[in-house]
Automatic annotation (TrEMBL):
GO molecular function terms attached to this record: nucleic acid binding
G-patch domain residues: 186-231
Name under which the protein is recorded: NF-kappa-B-repressing factor
Origin species: Culex pipiens
Highest taxon of source: Eukaryota
Amino acid sequence: MPVERASKRKSNGELSWKSKIIRQFVNGWIESDNVDGTEAPAKVEVKPSYNYPNFVKSSEEKPAASVTDPGLDKRTVRRIEDVIAYFYGEDRISLKLSFEQAGLLLETHYDEAGQVFRYTVNEHEICRAVGPQQEAHTKARDELVRILGYYCYSVRRLKEFHTRRNVFRKMTEGGKQKFKDHKIEEGNIGFRMLQKQGWSGGSLGSSEEGILEPIGVQKKNNKVGLGAESSEPQKIPLEAFMLAIKQYAAGNALYDLVFSPQFTVHQVQKLRDLASSLKLFPQMIGKKKQLVISKKLTLREIKEGVLKGHSDLCAKYAVIPPVYQSFK
C-alpha cells in the first residue's frame, strides 16, 4: 500500500519562532480604525464651519488692519477659488504646491525695463509690484499670500508628524544596552586582535547587524529540553515591520508611522523603498533623521478630513476659512 506523505505545512503550534514573532507583532501593532477612516463629526448649529476643533476663524487669525479686500474682479476670483493655500510653518507657504493641486499654473515674470514683477495664473495676471527685482518679488509674493488668505481656504500644518505608535526594534538580552553596561575588558586577547583590524566597538559587519558579544557557552540549570522556546526577548525581524507597513497602506489609518533611530541605514532604506512602492510618503525628520511614513493626502482631502473632525488630521493640521466669509 502506498504510504501517505506527511504534510510539509506546519500547524499553528509548530510555527517557527520567527513566524510567531511576526504574527504577534503585527496583530498587536496596528490599531483598529473605523471603516470609513473618519470619526463622527460633532453636532453643529447654523454655522457648522466654526464648531470643528481645528477650524479657525480667519478674523481671529488676522489683525483688523490687514483685513482688506484685494479688489480682484469676479473672473479672477472664480479662477483661484479652488486653491487651498498650504502653510507648513508659522509664515512659510508653498505656493507651488497650493496652485499645482488646484490644477493651475503659477508663473513669475519680471520686466527689467519697467522694473515690474508679476505673478500670473494660467497666463492671467493676478498681482504685481514695482521696484528692484528682489524687492518687487517680495512685495508681489506678500500680496499673493494676502489674496489667497482673503479668497481661499488655508491648511496650516501644526507639527511635522502625528502618531499613535512609535516603532522600536526590540533588542535581545545581549543587545546594545548590555554591551554598554558590560563591555569586554581591553586586556582581552580577542579585543586587542579586533582593535588591530580596525574595530572600534559596536556590532560587526558593514550594516552593523552582527553580534555585539562573543558567543559563549551557557550553563544549563533547568530540566527544559533542548530546543524549547526561551522567554527572553528577541529582536523582531525586519519582515514584521515590512508586513505592518503593508497593513498600514491597505488600511484607513491616517496617523504617521514613526520609526526609532535603532534601525540601521540599510534597514531604513529597505523600509523606505517598500513604503514608496506602496504609494506611501516616507521622509527623514528631525536631528536624528528618524524615518516617518505617512499616507499621501491631497490638500483637499486634508481640509475635508479636518472639517469632518478626524482626530488624526486635527492633531496635525488646522483649516482656516477665507477672510471674506467673516463679512457674510
